């Protein structure tokens, strides 16, 4: 007599919600939901890694910040600063 296997089918088919493609839901919907689930997990893991690693390393200052810095360093006078600031809007 042949052993039927843990799930009663000799393990030839995916019959558990823990195994196989579309593990959470059957059919094509299962594939889509499973891919979305793992995509979300990977995205969140990457965002967490960026947050822990100081993910704002390539911050580029805005035009107004650059203008303020130039005024603070004395590269431009107050009149030039006010004119450029109004042009930036």
From TrEMBL:
Entry-linked InterPro entries: SHOCT
Domain SHOCT residue range list: 63-88
Parts of the chain that traverse the membrane: 23-46
Domain of life per record: Bacteria
Keyword terms of this UniProt record: Membrane, Transmembrane, Transmembrane helix
Lineage: Bacteria, Pseudomonadati, Thermodesulfobacteriota, Desulfobulbia, Desulfobulbales
Name of the protein in question: SHOCT domain-containing protein
Keyword hit for Transmembrane: yes
């Amino acid at each position: 007599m042949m052993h039927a296997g843990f799930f009663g089918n000799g393990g030839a088919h995916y019959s558990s919600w823990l195994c196989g493609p579309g593990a959470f839901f059957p059919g094509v919907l299962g594939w889509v939901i499973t891919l979305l689930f793992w995509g979300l997990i990977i995205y969140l893991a990457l965002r967490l890694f960026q947050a822990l690693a100081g993910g704002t390393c390539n911050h580029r200052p805005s035009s107004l910040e650059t203008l303020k810095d130039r005024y603070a360093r004395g590269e431009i006078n107050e009149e030039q600063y006010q004119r450029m600031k109004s042009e930036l809007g």
